Amino acid sequence: EANYLIGRGMYDMTGPAAEINFMGYANPAQTGRGLHLRQFARAFVIADPTTHKRFAFVNIDGCMASQVVTLQVLDMLRVRYGSVYTADNVCITGTHTHSTPGGFFQYVLFDITSVGAVNQTIQAYANGIVN
User: Fold this and answer.
1) What's the CA dihedral at 98, 101, 103, 105 to 10 degrees?
2) Could you tell me if 90 and 60 are in contact, meaning their C-beta atoms sit under 8 angstroms apart?
């Protein structure tokens, strides 16, 4: 019989809300004009008290996760928790919405309509996920 410890958390990860291109439709005219709903990161951590192994699953209110945000999150977790969380035990996924800021990818195709990476979005996402 296994007994697991399970924790959960939710944190605001709302990025820029005005004059920013939205992710997903590849339409430069689709820009934010204000805030309707805040974005959140919802995390679930499952730990095995016997082996001390952990798994973190994070669902973000965003189109999808990106490698650049995931790498930033892993760096921030490493500073805060040492080697507890790595690419082997952290999963970040998105709700798949097209009504959130773009510019959080490292691939040109995804960032064309936002005219490149948007550091405000990347930082807001990474901070919201880690906290």
Assistant:
1) -50
2) no
